[in-house]
Specification:
Number of strands of chain A: 33
Number of strands of chain B: 15
Number of helices of chain A: 14
Structural class of chain A: alpha+beta
Largest sheet of chain B: 9 strands, mixed
Number of helices of chain B: 12
Helix content of chain A: 25-40%
Strand content of chain B: 15-25%
Oligomer: heterodimer
Radius of gyration of chain A: 28 Å
Strand order of the largest sheet of chain B: 7-8-6-5-4-3-2-1-9
Strand order of the largest sheet of chain A: 11-10-16-7-8-15-12-13
Largest interface: A-B, 23 and 42 residues
Structural class of chain B: alpha/beta
Radius of gyration of chain B: 20 Å
Distance between the termini of chain B: 38 Å
Chain lengths: 617, 363
């Protein structure tokens, strides 16, 4: 949960007070985002801009002011879009921070829709990266002005000329237009602010037209309810007006509108081109999602703004409390988390191995990791996650199509006509020395190459079509390790493709362990079955009888391990001093049995499932 | 049998001798190799404790000098402790002996003091295995020791054996058993090597015994000793008919006993207690006239009944059939009078069976 918003009364001593009363002349406004790869210096540049424009005094400056969630600071990435309003030499600048990961691509597109231009920020020692490039194309498609900037020119390894010509080649922007800065030292940042005011056009919009305001982010504040970031396109967004949310369909009273300077500052109204926040007594961010169009209830616009989408979860997993007693806590935590992140889905699920939990859907792997980490950190839960899965489309014999995101729900093999899986268009930018390594990886993940382009003699862009299921395992980690961290990745969804997919079940003494059921390509079924059975054979303690661990497709066993019956569990000596010790040892052993999960007759320590699931990931 | 209980209740004394010339790699007992200078004070303190105890003791039916290495101490010093005790007629008096210290004279002295049972720490009859256990004696010394015990006319002989060293093959173990049987002892205590934390063995996982190897050796032991006429009457103890150790049976029947010396355990009137661990602290307590007891526990009636079952399960007495669930039936055999005892395979899994004791049988 974010800290409560500091409520700043409208007072005369607020910095940038000139913009306070809202409805600033559109001609003086510049709205822009910074597009950058992780570690290319976006947060440092944002900090420098806040400092130079006097928005934040140096002494109150925390590094990376805009990344307010702890997790964002730790990981150095922005998860939720933020915005801030500053003044620069007679202009009003709205800096709209975009999420920094491909999982949040839709949010990026909504943030860009609030801008007229972008600053393309590229590390002068590394060059442009895949996702930056993808976002840049997105900006170009939306006719945004691009201000290219090479950052970190203070580094000895910086080669601004080389990467300026790369930008020219890849994006068709003249190399002479590329600015060179060091966000760290501040060198060139003033020139960049000037370039923003000179090159990026002011917003257009009719102040007298019916209100159309775009929500590009919403978060839940425990005191104020949902706080949305908005950009007014046409008309005026006033405090006290009755508003209609055109996609969600609700009507809400505008309780407060205001600016982030970056201190939260209420104002009477926001006019065309202005960016600020809106509080309308909403309790659930699903009612005010990114892409929503807000209009006036009294004089509504005819149509909403274009481009609204309802992002669908792409990656699924079961989340279970390690301690079964924490199930109600997990339910409450998910419900609270969803107030702040409408893209998480969850529904109750029961697993024979793990007990009661939830099937959860996420935008991507990072999103999944973040949600899980927030649940553990902010709600004090200890969780087990099952292996990530994707949503398959299954056509049954009687020509019904069902979507399956949990392998256990797959109909029996006999009733399945065809299984289709989601595909991705994957783009990898890599130094050309690693081309072979990247190709090997993509091919081993059932990828097929669609194109290969040299950005320069040293750098190449490889495009592949790869099943999403192959990417959600450890594709990104593998890509990084095989290219020593130099390759970058972007992807786009590319529909569904029918494949030879099967469900692999893992049987423990003949009983299926649902947590390990997985849908795999036929060619990958055997290695999966072998790996999991071997892992479980190591982790499951010997019982009083032989325990077969099998992997099966339908009724056919494809791999088998056996945990041989335990033969010895005895204290050799039991004399005077041993008696108390023995009794205590037996008590502990008995307690240990209570903590085991029984799968049929087999007693399995919780930790064995947890370890096996962790190893798998 | 003379030792299955008699009209007058049994009472045992355990006297701990915490001195050794060398610590074996597997040993976690309270014993020290650098404190021989304490022996005289220590034994005097034991004698004084025995004297103070004697006033309130019933007739003592068994005495066990254990260690440590009791035969590191001059026999007269053991004799002085014995002399303080109200011994019952025919009391079983055992001294644990390390073969590398046994002499003919020592055994004659013991015999003269009334010692009628010697327990020899043989462990293995294979010199490579003895080295791997960190033992200092060699197999020849065992033969000489057995001979000395016999010549002195001491009636009962036990051999302690240990199986399971990584350095020991199954045929090495078979050899040890065969040689031990050739000595015709009355009793054999056969222990699985157990890595204890803080010992040289415990700290070296590469030397930890393998459970399956241990199981093979245990079953071989049961077979060979059974064939030679020894009865398995407890998990680690075999005896000729009539030669079961009276003192040890007290432990397994929740009988009464008192400890003498440091780190010695007592069980009287339903209370278990134990004395301070080091000889220094024991000597100090006795000379100050303070209690050497370091800790104690008293079980509730249910706990006590469960403990009785847990202990009985280890013996050939077995437990009432209703005390065990059916899922371990394959590890049990009838012991007469509606009781069940562990089979040889069952004894290897005694803990697994013991944790099921007292659970409802419809499990």
């Amino acid at each position: 949960m974010r800290p409560a918003m500091p409520h700043v009364p409208p007072a005369a001593d607020i910095p940038n007070g000139g913009a306070r009363t809202g409805s600033t002349s559109a001609a003086s406004i510049r709205n822009f985002s910074i597009i950058a790869h992780i570690d290319h210096g976006k947060s440092t540049l944002s900090d420098r801009i806040l400092e130079l424009t006097g928005a934040v005094e140096e002494r109150s400056m925390r590094a990376q002011y805009l990344d307010s969630m702890d997790l964002e600071r730790e990981r150095g990435i922005t998860i939720k879009a933020q915005n801030v309003r500053v003044s620069w030499r007679g202009h009003t600048l709205h800096l709209i921070d975009t999420p920094g990961h491909v999982d949040f691509g839709y949010e990026v597109s909504r943030s860009l829709a609030a801008c007229e231009g972008v600053v393309l920020l590229v590390d002068a020692a590394q060059g442009i990266e895949a996702q930056t490039l993808a976002n840049c194309y997105l900006a170009l498609e939306s006719d945004l002005t691009i201000v290219p900037v090479l950052n970190k020119i203070d580094l000895p390894a910086a080669d601004p000329d080389l990467y300026a010509s790369e930008i020219e080649r890849v994006l068709g922007i003249d190399a002479s237009e590329v600015l060179a800065i060091s966000a760290k030292t501040g060198e060139g940042v003033e020139a960049l602010l000037d370039a923003i005011t000179e090159r990026i056009p002011p917003p257009s919009g009719d102040p007298d037209a019916p209100l159309q305001a775009l929500i590009f982010d919403s978060h839940f504040d425990q005191y104020r309810g949902v706080v949305s970031s908005v950009r007014v396109m046409n008309g005026r967004l006033c405090a006290g007006d009755r508003l209609r949310f055109m996609h969600a369909g609700g009507q809400h009273l505008s309780e407060e509108v205001g600016l982030r300077l970056p201190a939260v500052t209420p104002t009477d109204e926001l006019g065309p081109g202005e960016v600020g926040y809106l509080i309308a007594g909403i309790k659930d961010v699903a009612q005010a999602r990114s892409g929503e169009t807000v209009t006036s209830a009294a004089a509504p616009a005819d149509v909403p703004l274009a481009g609204y989408d309802d992002p669908k979860p792409m990656v699924f997993c079961g989340l279970y409390p390690v301690d079964g007693d924490e199930y109600p806590d997990l339910r409450d935590a998910l419900a609270k988390l969803r107030l702040n992140d409408a893209s998480v889905t969850f529904e109750p699920e029961t697993s024979g191995a793990l007990g009661f939990g939830f099937r959860c859907g996420f935008l991507g792997l990072l999103h999944m990791e973040i949600v899980r980490e927030r649940l553990e950190r902010e709600f004090g839960l200890s969780l087990i996650a099952t292996a990530p899965s994707v949503a398959y489309r299954v056509r049954t014999d009687d020509d019904q199509e069902v979507e399956i995101d949990n392998p256990s729900d797959l109909p029996p093999a006999g009733q399945i006509g065809e299984i289709a899986e989601p595909m991705l268009n994957v783009s990898v930018l890599t130094p050309s020395a690693y081309t072979g390594a990247v190709m090997d990886l993509c091919q081993s993940r059932r990828g097929s190459m669609t194109s290969m382009d040299y950005l320069s003699p040293e750098r190449v862009e490889l495009r592949y079509e790869v099943p999403l299921a192959e990417v959600v395992t450890d594709f990104f980690d593998q890509l990084k390790s095989r290219t020593q961290g130099y390759a970058s990745l972007d992807y786009d969804h590319a529909g569904y493709r029918a494949e030879r997919l099967v469900r692999v079940d893992i049987l423990l003494n003949g009983e299926s362990v649902d947590a390990f059921s997985a849908i795999r390509h036929r060619d990958g079924a055997y290695p999966y079955g072998k790996a999991i059975t071997a892992k479980l054979a190591e982790l499951i303690p010997r019982q009083l009888f032989d325990v077969p661990i099998q992997a099966a497709i339908g009724g056919r066993i494809i791999a088998r391990e056996t945990v041989k019956a335990k033969r010895k569990d005895v204290l050799s000596k039991c004399y005077g001093g041993d008696i108390t010790r023995k009794r205590k040892l037996l008590e502990r052993q008995k307690e240990g049995k209570k903590r085991m999960k029984a799968i049929g007759r087999v007693e399995v320590p919780n930790e064995a499932f947890v370890s096996a699931l962790r190893l798998e990931q | 049998m003379t030792d299955t209980g008699s009209a007058s209740p049994s009472f045992g004394i355990y006297c701990h001798i915490p001195f050794c010339t060398h610590r074996c790699d597997y040993c976690a007992f309270a014993t020290w190799t650098d404190r021989e200078h304490l022996i005289d004070d220590y034994m005097a303190s034991c004698r004084r404790q025995a004297r103070e105890l004697a006033a309130e003791l019933p007739a003592v039916t068994s005495v066990f000098f254990g260690g440590g290495t009791p035969n590191l101490v001059a026999p007269e010093l053991l004799g002085e402790v014995l002399a303080e005790l109200p011994l019952a007629g025919g009391a079983e008096i055992t001294v644990e002996c390390n073969p590398d210290l046994v002499t003919a004279e020592q055994m004659q002295s013991y015999e003269a003091l009334g010692v009628n049972r010697i327990s020899l720490g043989v462990q293995s009859m294979n010199s490579g295995v003895l080295d791997a256990l960190g033992r200092r004696h060699d197999p020849e010394m065992v033969a000489a020791s057995v001979d000395a015990v016999r010549r002195a006319g001491i009636g009962q002989l036990n051999l302690d054996l240990i199986y399971g060293s990584r350095a020991e093959s199954v045929s090495d173990w078979e050899h040890t058993l065969a040689r031990a049987i050739e000595f015709e002892p009355d009793h054999l205590s056969v222990y699985g090597l157990t890595p204890e934390a803080g010992t040289a063995l415990g700290d070296d996982p590469s030397r930890h015994p393998d459970d399956d190897d241990m199981a093979d050796k245990y079953l071989l032991t049961d077979e060979l000793l059974g064939r030679a006429g020894y009865e398995a009457y407890e998990i680690s103890n075999w005896a000729r008919p009539g030669a079961r150790c009276r003192h040890n049976r007290l432990y397994w029947r929740q009988g009464s006993y008192a400890g003498v010396g440091c780190a010695a355990h007592s069980h009287r009137d339903g209370r278990r207690y134990w004395s301070v661990r080091t000889p220094e602290r024991f000597i100090a307590a006795i000379s100050n006239g303070t209690s050497p007891v370091a800790g104690s526990e008293e079980l509730g009636p249910d706990e006590r009944r469960l403990e009785a079952l847990q202990l009985a399960l280890r013996t050939s007495d077995g437990v009432p059939a209703g005390a065990l669930p059916h899922d371990v039936g394959h590890l049990l055999e009838p012991a007469g009078e509606g009781r069940l005892k562990l089979t040889a395979r069952g004894r290897l899994l005694a803990n697994e069976v013991a944790v099921r004791l007292g659970l409802p049988s419809a499990r």
